[in-house]
Structure formats: structure tokens, C-alpha cells
Amino acid sequence: MLNIDSIENGIVIDHITAGRGMRVYELLELQKLDTCVAIIKNARSSKFGRKDIIKIEGVLNIDLDVLGFIDDNATVCTIRNGKLVEKKKPELPKKLVNIVSCKNPRCITSMEQVDQVFYLCDEKEHRYRCKYCEQEYKK
Amino acid sequence: MRHLIDPLDFTLGETERLLELAQKIIREPEKYAHLCDGRILATLFYEPSTRTRLSFESAMMRLGGKVLGFASADNSSAAKGESVADTIRMISGYADIAAMRHFKEGAPLVASRYAKIPVINAGDGGHQHPTQTLTDLLTIRLKRGEINGVTIGLCGDLKFGRTVHSLIKSLVRYKGVKFLFISPEELPVPGYILKEVVEPSGHSYREVRTMEEVMPQLDILYMTRVQRERFFNEEDYVRLKDSFILTPEKLNLGKKDLAVMHPLPRVNEISPLVDADERAVYFEQARNGVYVRMALILCLLGLVPGILEEGE
Fold first, then answer.
1. Domain architecture of chain B: domains with CATH
2. Cβ contacts of A122 on chain B, cutoff 8 Å
3. What are the angstrom distances between the C-alpha of B143 and each of A126, B45, B150, B173?
4. 8 Å CB contact of B196 and A122
């Protein structure tokens, strides 16, 4: 069993679907932080069997908007002075900027260097459309 | 500064006021004949077009303005690899307003982000064609007096037809609209249009496979072309194409005050024998395109105040 210390102040992103931890790490740009960050892959989970976890020490103000898009199973726990002070499910972001790319070959984004922008068109079914051509994003 | 990229960029109130202005222009064209003296419209057509480009040019000229531009990507700096963003920044120094047609969907939206002048989407790939929608709305209004309460049959290729999708999106903002979608099984209205646009609006709709079964109910019959290249095999095309051709016999099932519309070009989906019937309004509809574009140019240049709201 691998042991990683609990954190004093920071954020724990728990219940990440197993295998998506690195993607979350990249999209949240955690490589830019100079604090201690741990990625735990394939941790045991009573709920899901396996899960990924990310622990971020010393930072409380990360923009977690994109998390809801990547993995709506995840939970975000805020730790202060070693205590859990907040636990929440990420919300689906209304807009995604440069998170995913439009796959429509007729879209202007296939030709022009512009931000890839998608907007949430159906909250219930987690569907997004390209801002430029309105093609739905398919994973 | 405002642009027109999507038919829904204008609120219902703004759209209605714009259509009223177009009607005033039809009644008294001389009052508007010099409002654009000294102004220049740039027509940036990366893709060939007859009606749209010429109607924009006609509109600007009828307002007293001048026109410059190009009619295909080959004749523009796009052939040298210039981006849309750079082209529109340059054009902003040459003209007062621009109409852009582009083969890439979303290109006019990109242009509007970098432009210092109003940009009008004159058709972007298979996506939007807002000035066609305004033309359609004006034609319905002229024929019926109002758009509320219209029963409209949209016939033909409802799957890929951009004019149909834009028109549906605009019509759901009116009251008491009934939609009858007449198409082959292979080319129905896309599910997302029904789910995200028609159903939330609460308007009634029906999907049918023949024109005849709904013809007597219609106030407007909006024809579109069933294109051969949309079918996987020739047999299906041959089997279905005649079902979606409007003939005088089928037209006789319609009301006396029915209006038959078509965004044009028409190929064979409306028999030329229908042209003489006074219910055939598609050429009048094409003419309305000039008036609606005149109204649009005036609004976007701020030459007729009180139509568009400030800001954006």
C-alpha cells in the first residue's frame, strides 16, 4: 500500500474516474504550480472500484471550472489547517475555451488560428456545441 | 457596433422593426435613395453566389452608396493564405460595412471579432444565412400582414438545408406558429433542431412524407431542393424526387391565399407551370431580399435610429 501524506492546506480532487487523472492534471495546468502536487492513479474506491486522486498542497484558488466537463464524478475537497472545510461537485462550465477542438472540417477553426470555444447547449445531457459552426462536440 | 452573424443576433423587437423599415422602403424608396451617399459596402465573397451578392450590391447602390469587393476566394488575398482576421482588419480601412460569404462555417463570426466596421454574414458554409431568413420573414409578413399564427409547410431537404434551420429558429419566436415538416425519410429535420428549438418553444409540429396530405392547411409552403448528392444510391433518389416536386395539380389542393416560397436557385422541385400562379411568390421573395438588405445596411450603419438597441 502506497502512502501519501495528508495535506494541511490545499485541494484534494477525489473520485476522479480511473485513468483521467493525468488529463485533469494537464487541463488544470497543474504543471505550472511550484507547490507539492500528487497524482494517485488507480486508488481503491469502495464506490467505483478504482479511482484517481490529485492532491495539491498550499493552493486554494485554482480555476476548477473545466473539471465538470472532464469528469463529473470528481469531488473537490478544500482543506484548511488539516480539516475538510468544503466538499463540492464541480459544475458544468457554461463555456469551454481551448479545452477541446472542433472536429468539423468545414469549421473556420480548421483553417484560422482562433480560440476553440464551445458552449453548453444541454445541461441535462452534458452537450456542448462549437461557438463558430455549432457542431456538437463528441468525445 | 452591431453585426448580423446569426439570425438570432437581433431580438424579436429589433427584427420586427427592421422588417417594418423594409416595408417603408418598398413604399417610398426615394426617401432612402441617398442615405448612403459617400458610404462603401465591401462584398467579401469567398464562394460564388448570384442572388446574395447582387442583392447586397443592388441594396447599397439603391441607397446611394458604392460597392467594392471580390466574388471568389481565388481573386482575393485568401489565395495567398491571408487569414480572415487580417483581411477584415484591412477592409475596415477601405469600407464602412462588409458582407461576407465564406465556405468555412463561423468565418463571419471570426471576422466580426476583428472588424472595426459592421459585418453581415452572407452565408457561411452549410451553417447560417441570416439575410435569407430576414428575406423570408419579410415575404411572409408582406403576404399575411403578420407572422404570428402562420401555418408553414417546409418541404424537401430539411436535414441539410441551412435556410430551413435558420427560418425555424426565427419563427419559434413568434406566437401560434404551426410547423409541418414535409421530407423524405432520409432527409428529416435534424433531431437537435426539434429537441433544442421546436419542442422547447411549445409550437405544434408534424413530420409527414407527402405534400398532398397537408397542403390544404398551409398558409406558406416553403420549398427546398432535394439534391441528388444527398442520397446514398440513385434508386432512392429517383424513387423520392417526384414526391417533392410541386406541380399545378398539387398546388390546386392548397388554399387560395397560400404563398409558395423558395430560397432559389430552383432546379426541378417546382414545375415552371406553377410560376404563372399568383400564389408563387419566390421571385417576389428574391426581390424582397434587396429591401431587407437596404434596411439592414441602414440599421447597422446607424443611419436610421431606433431600430437596433445600443451596445453588444
1. 7-128+289-300 (3.40.50.1370), 131-285 (3.40.50.1370)
2. 196
3. 42, 31, 11, 19
4. yes
